[in-house]
Amino acid sequence: MARTKQYDEQEVLQKAMDLFWENGYEGTSVRMLENKMGINQFSIYSSFGSKHGLFLESIKIYKGKLNSIREKLKESKNGVAGIEQFFYDFLKFTRNNDINKGCLVCNSLSELGSKATPDLIQELMKFTEEIKVLFINNLEQESGKSQETIKREANYLMTSMLGLSLGSRLLNKEQLDDYIQTTFLNI
Question: Could you give the dihedral angle defined by the CA atoms of residues 128, 80, 169 and 33, in that order, rounded to the nearest 10 degrees?
Answer without folding.
Answer: -40
